[in-house]
Design goal:
The structure holds 2 protein chains of 2 kinds.
Chain A lengths: L1 E10 L2 E7 L4 E5 L6 H13 L23 E9 L7 E9 L2 E10 L2 E3 L1 H4 L5 E4 L4 H5 L2 H15 L1 H23 L9 H43 L6 E6 L18 H25 L10 E6 L2 E2 H4 L2 H23 L4 E5 L7 H11 L4 E6 L7 H6 L1 E6 L2 E4 L1
Parallel strand pairs in A: 3-13, 3-14, 8-12, 12-13
Antiparallel strand pairs in A: 1-2, 1-4, 4-5, 5-6, 6-7, 9-10, 10-11, 14-15
Helix pairs in contact in A: 4-5, 5-6, 6-7, 6-9
Chain B lengths: L7 H10 L7 H13 L3 H15 L2 E2 L6 E2 L5 H4 L7 E5 L2 H9 L6 E4 L17 H8 L9 E4 L5 H13 L6 E4 L15 H9 L5
Parallel strand pairs in B: 3-4, 3-5, 5-6
Antiparallel strand pairs in B: 1-2
Helix pairs in contact in B: 1-2
The chains are: A alpha/beta, B alpha/beta.
Amino acid sequence: MVLRRLELSQFRNFRHVELDFQAPCTLVQGPNGAGKTNLLDAICFLALSKSLRPQTDRQSIHDGLDPKEPKYFNLRAETENAAGTGHVLRVFFGTGRLGPPMAKHLFLDGAEVAAAHMLGHLKVVLVEPEDTRLVSDGPKLRRRALDVTLCQLDALYMHHLVRYRKVLANRNALLAQFRGRTATPPTAFTRQMEFLDAQLAEEGVQVMRRRAVWIQRVSRHAEQVQAQLTANGDVLSVRYRPSAAVDFENGEGTTEASDAAEDETQRRQFRCALEEVLGTELERGFTMAGPHRDDVVFLNDGRSLGKFGSRGQQRTGILAWRLAEAQAIRELTGEFPLLLLDDVMSELDESRRTRVCEAMAEAAQVVAATPDWGHYPEAMRDTAQCLEIRDGVLAPT
Amino acid sequence: MSSDLLPGIVTDTIASLSRLPGIGPRSAQRLTYFLLQAPEHLPRELGDLLLRLQAETELCRICCNICDTQPCGLCSSRDRDRSVICVVEEPQIVSVIDRMGQFNGLYHVLHGTLSPLDGRGPDDIRLKELWRRLDVGGEAEVREVIVATSPDLPGQATAQWIADELRHYPIKVSQLARGLAAGSDLEYADDVSFRFALEGRRIL
């Protein structure tokens, strides 16, 4: 699957941009603040039906010259798969035909659809400068990154995640209601808890199994990519750390349990974990075990990459992880996702840059933004579609 | 909208109407201006009906549906099958189910679901009234309770609560099926509906 054409109107610092992708690799060069990240985020927006940046949709509307101009932005993408057919994805934010309030509307091939139906038609893997925070910061970012990837790949993942969060909110509300009354929880509490625990385990196990399988799959590729990037220097290993001790080792490689008995065992393990923390939960008033407290650990030569890795090592490690995700998506779906690279070369030395370019060459399509042409070798610039971006205006070089 | 631009009664009416569900400030304004210029009998009738709406209705002491006679027409009917009770969340669901004419049993309206998030527990909905109907020695022998709550989390929690409570009664507890929409093509079914349909498949 490749992105053939992109059109942006009134989005962030772009007035209007039309871009036809003519080569497997597109390089975009521009100074800070020219719109490189906004261009890549527009593509992510179309793929994920929401932005990955902190701006709200309303804040993403171009400031405009005339205050009386209608306020909206419009993003449009044409994709093409191996069979030669494709889709048209469109995101519109603004005042609809029925008048205010402003809202986001998603269209797939001309028909308005819900976000769940928009996801997965354009698969992207984004590598950005902030990615190093994935290894250095807390687990929340790692869970979010995992969710973003898995929601693109698996409609059921999103379904179970959304349901899990609803059950969790209800369970937390019930815990808060009976907070502090640890002595003898009344039967109204225990019986409602019994139901919520069963639901939490049902959805939670589905979410956790999909995470476990995915991390296992990607880490196999990541070890190879890391070896390629570092010329067998560092060994990267990535491990899933579920907060509830549930064993997923047997169901290797499948998102469905091998049989009902295994499903049942995993749900029981989840519920045992909940039972162990119930006392503390009643003191604190919220749920303390489950996918919402999961973590992923990155190890460099067996030591925590976040704690002991240098900045360059962290950058390389996370880059290896992202490239491995792209390979795992191809293994799973048969098609390479679109690789979006936002200023990835900055902290890498010359030899690593060359090897990153080699790894990039395997992808079906890459869009890479850089402040400096020198980050990419001349041989690569010759075959790529090279564009310059200045103040929200794109021009071929 | 500045308050000195319009008489207070107009702005108050707009504000009051916009408190109704599904009515935004714009619709409220439209309704208010319509009523301002409507023939006099129309607002008079409307006002009269609104005043009588709550005064002349109550909840049936048996099924908790909205009624004007005790017990309600459905509960006192001799043509209904008294061995089946269909449990619903809200009174408006009764008319939805009864309209299709396939169900000839009695109803029970809970007026809500179990939802810790909204602070609603088992004592906050009409469950006690349901148990009273099912107790041995009641007016009729109920053989089945059909739980027709929504397939969302509070609806399911309520269904499970009822099923657990009735475990020791000689009463069958069933739940509405969910899955593929009637009349829709398999080709267009989404993954999630299909999964439910597969789980709830029937032996032919």
